[in-house]
Specification:
The protein has 189 residues and is mostly helical. It has one domain. The protein has 8 helices and no strands.
Length: 189
């Protein structure tokens, strides 16, 4: 069993994570809809982590991203990406269970790390799955809270339906997490 699952690739730095988030938001400041802005900011940071090798950049009309060879290993960038993904899910669906998705994803990384199978969760074979961390959970939960606040602000204080985040992103999840979650692609009928 591989128990070396807490080894971080870089030191955690909340200020660096916050700077990534703020930089992404500045890039999309003109986008007024919170769900759309958060989705584009997430895609932008994901594009940076993948050194431009991210289909969402083209799908969302986002131009080229900076190419940093260390980006795939930057835990602060990863935390910022996780924050924005959770914020996107929560702000676009209002689903409070986004918090469970955040903790569940990190728990899956812990279990797979113990089994020596963390890299099975790769969504792109070129880039590693970083070690699980409490920091990633903290940033993800903060993203969920901030996204839920945005959703409530535009929906009379109400939240969305439990499970809507999963439904709204089923194609994304199925297409990218098949090996790690045992999901199979849907076929056209």
């Amino acid at each position: 069993m591989n128990r070396n699952y807490t080894l971080a690739t870089m030191p955690y730095n909340s200020a660096a994570t916050q700077k990534y988030v703020e930089d992404a938001f500045r890039r999309f400041a003109a986008v007024k809809d919170p769900g759309e802005r958060n989705g584009k900011a997430f895609a932008y940071l994901r594009g940076i982590r993948r050194r431009g090798d991210e289909p969402l950049l083209t799908q969302l009309g986002i131009g080229p991203v900076p190419d940093d060879p260390n980006a795939p290993f930057d835990v602060n960038l990863a935390d910022a990406e996780h924050y924005l993904y959770a914020r996107y899910l929560a702000s676009s669906t209002g689903d409070p269970s986004v918090k469970a998705l955040v903790t569940g994803y990190e728990l899956k990384k812990v279990i797979d790390s113990i089994r020596g199978a963390r890299q099975n969760m790769r969504t792109n074979p070129k880039y590693p799955v970083l070690p699980p961390s409490v920091e990633a959970v903290k940033w993800g939960l903060k993203g969920a809270e901030d996204g839920l606040a945005e959703y409530k602000a535009s929906h009379g204080g109400k939240t969305g339906n439990i499970g809507d985040a999963i439904k709204a992103n089923q194609d994304f999840i199925t297409g990218q997490y098949k090996p790690g979650y045992g999901l199979t692609s849907r076929t056209a009928t």
